[in-house]
Protein: Dihydroxy-acid dehydratase
Amino acid sequence: MAKPPLRSQRSYGKIDRDGFIHRSWIKATGLPEHVFDGRPIIGIANTWSELVTCQVHLRELAGFVKRGIWEAGGVPIEFPAMSLPETQMRPTAMLFRNLLAMEVEESIRANPIDGVVLLGGCDKTTPGLLMGAASVDLPAIFVSSGPMLNGKFRGQDIGSGTDVWRFSEEVRAGDMSLADFMAAESGMSRSAGTCNTMGTASTMSAIVEGLGMSLPNNSALPAVDARRRVLAHLSGNRIVQMVKDDVKPSDILTREAFENAILVHAAIGGSTNAVVHLLALAGRVGVPLDLHDFDVIGREVPLLVNLMPSGQYLMEDFCYAGGVPAVLNELGDLLRREAVTAWGKTQGEIAAGGEVWNREVIGTREVPVGPSSGVWVLTGNLCPDGAILKPSAATPELLTHRGKAVVFEDIEDYHARIDDPDLPVDATSILVLKGCGPKGYPGMPEVGNMALPRKLLELGVRDMVRISDARMSGTAYGTVILHVAPESEAGGPLALVQTGDEIAFDGPGRRLDLLVDEAELARRRQAWEAARAAPKYDRGWYRLYIDTVMQADKGVDLDFLVGKSSADVTRESH
Ligand code: FES
Ligand code: MG
Structure:
């Protein structure tokens, strides 16, 4: 039976006034008549931007994707998508992840394309691109930016983010001079590409491979490695075939794919941010996934990858050691092997081709880099809808702890008082930060790994239990309890904590409790409600976001974006 014509032919194949309009204005971009004969039209959604190094090379990389598309008999058409530079945007790039997802979704749906190549890499661009593409469900493949080269400073490797946090604590403790601190800046980020630690960008690109949404090795190949250009070319080849075979995100993004992503996340000691991104993506494709899946599925896997912040090495080392295919191989019988991928092979087949070249960097399940890590999902009266913690980044002695709260009402309050010599704090205290959730900040910024009080740093204290409704950078570490839901701004019990309250954290038992009696909490709630201020943001994206954003345990997507809509648009534009 003959296949129906492609979606693009509903615009470019029409022999009438509408076809004239669609063709005339696209041919004038430099495309000859004959390419509109029914071959696949492939969009390239490109988050290229000069605002950050993570995506600055993507126009060049798009050129290699185009070669591959032409070679396979398709027509490449590149279009821009919002860039979300993690280190530049205020109040946080996360505020705009869902905006990128909306832009990508509607750009794909509204234009006469048959499939799409997603180009991005910085923390929030990867989930934003995936979420948008998943909600249209046309064939899609991911080509990541690739990590930047290892950072170098005075003969040592230094890692994006992780060493910023470490150095800045050393400066505050008086162990590093400010001049040395500034000198490390240009050695840390010294090529195009995403952060070279296992931060959120590297975590999300590894997860793209774990989900099966890219070719193998998409995650670890350095941004400037010639083989990334080859991978871009091959991805261009592949998307044309995916269109011909009608392989859609919904065919790839199954429950098994998400389970593989969680296994990979645990094995690499991935960023806590992946939790909200995977929950949001699962919501788009309608796969049942909840917070506890991360703890339960991830528990099966020890830490296999020795990368900062949980370990020692950087993404270049991970690439040379075998990258994600090698990790898939080490997962062995835990891997959901039948899961299909954008490559057309199963994850089991990809794993079979993975090999480890450096046992310092990638361990085995028998001799792992560290114990079972992943994320711990906590519940208790302080976080009725959950909170998370990354045990591989925490201090083991603090994973069970009881202490008195030192509360900061918002980030300004924290900055104003943290170094106050009179702050009633000691090494056993628990720092509590409010007002940093999705609605509160807004956008749920990466401030959960609050720096410690200077007076304790000077005494040699390097970690404390910290609790907030914020996220933390994937490059950060510490005994940091994050994503408390509901957030304080939404009236979660976090809003009611006061300095001096006792808090019990039982990591192994997965509990987080505020030891204040019910009657007192009810009294505080009444006072909290009476004192609520009028909303600060009354227009634009901020308002839409605050009015509709869901809590961390639901992935921080906007409530009306959950699910997907058809790629069909029947009405013409003129
Ligand atoms: Fe873009 Fe880290 S700032 S990946
Ligand atoms: Mg970040």
